[in-house]
């Protein structure tokens, strides 16, 4: 079948918009500010990105966010798609495998299907942006490590919500478990199980701080056998029980180095 050219019945009058809609237009944030944010994520600048999220730069019109739709939920979804798409491309430029970066963008954008309100979109945006920033921080710290460990860290990041063992990763990388475990500990100064435990606790910290999900929901989401075991692991790692951590840090400004937040995806109730 011969493809016919798309017929445009009427072309929008851009000149007319420029001349007549001046009063309705708003001041957008300068491109340099947006680029600074994307570069901060791609370089793993956790403090800058954290502050940007706390200030609501993503969604507040007075902060320079454009109005892409009159429907507020649709408007935020448009902004979310744009932000995640550009961030992942900046991360690719920073050295992350481009297919991994693009697949990550596809996955994170797909999470929009499960959120329905403005608040949920904002929470998802802030958590995902922080997740990517922490991943890039780890990536930048491990640039000098072997390709094997880089691939292992990517695997852990993508499967952090599952029960992950050294056998799983060694099989995925087609290595013996003993060789992989020795190499991993040599280059990270942590055993595989210790690293995974710390990463899971970071996810839990992020959920306790940014979401309204209950402690048992978070425990189940992260694959712990019981809530009591999750609480035991969490307190041993952070010095706080999950409840005490939430009471102290829920949606508050951090006064320490931002070393205790990491990967986050919205759990489904």
Strand content: under 5%
Radius of gyration: 21 Å
Secondary-structure element order, N to C? HHHHHHHHHHHHH
Distance between the amino and carboxyl termini: 47 Å
Helices, by number, come to: 13
User: Quick one: biggest sheet?
Assistant: none
Shape label: globular
Q: Supply the helix-strand structural class.
A: mainly alpha
Overall pLDDT level: 82
Taking pLDDT < 50 over at least 5 consecutive residues as the criterion, the unreliable ranges are 253-269
What share of the residues lie within helices? 55-70%
Count of DSSP strands: 0
GO molecular function: DNA-binding transcription factor activity; sequence-specific DNA binding
Organism: Pseudobutyrivibrio xylanivorans
Domain HTH araC/xylS-type: 150-248
Keywords: DNA-binding, Transcription, Transcription regulation
């Amino acid at each position: 079948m011969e493809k016919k050219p798309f017929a445009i019945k009427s072309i929008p009058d851009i000149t007319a918009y420029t001349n007549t809609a001046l009063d309705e237009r708003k001041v957008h944030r300068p491109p340099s500010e947006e680029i600074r944010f994307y570069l901060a994520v791609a370089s793993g600048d956790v403090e800058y990105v954290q502050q940007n999220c706390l200030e609501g730069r993503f969604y507040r019109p007075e902060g320079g966010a454009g109005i892409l739709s009159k429907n507020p939920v649709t408007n935020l979804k448009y902004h979310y798609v744009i932000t995640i798409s550009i961030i992942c491309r900046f991360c690719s430029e920073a050295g992350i495998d481009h297919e991994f970066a693009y697949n990550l963008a596809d996955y994170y954008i797909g999470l929009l299907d499960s959120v329905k309100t403005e608040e949920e979109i904002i929470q998802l945006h802030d958590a995902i942006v922080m997740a990517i920033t922490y991943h890039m921080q780890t990536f930048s710290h491990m640039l000098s490590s072997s390709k094997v460990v880089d691939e292992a860290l990517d695997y852990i990041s993508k499967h952090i919500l599952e029960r992950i063992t050294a056998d799983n990763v060694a099989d995925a990388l087609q290595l013996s478990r003993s060789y992989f475990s020795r190499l991993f500990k040599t280059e990270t100064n942590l055993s595989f199980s210790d690293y995974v435990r710390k990463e899971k606790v970071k996810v839990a910290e992020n959920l306790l701080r940014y979401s309204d999900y209950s402690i048992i929901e978070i425990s189940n989401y992260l694959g712990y056998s019981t809530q009591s075991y999750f609480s035991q692991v969490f307190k041993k790692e952070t010095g706080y029980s999950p409840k005490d951590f939430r009471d102290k840090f829920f949606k508050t400004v951090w006064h320490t180095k931002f070393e205790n937040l990491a990967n986050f995806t919205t759990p489904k109730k």
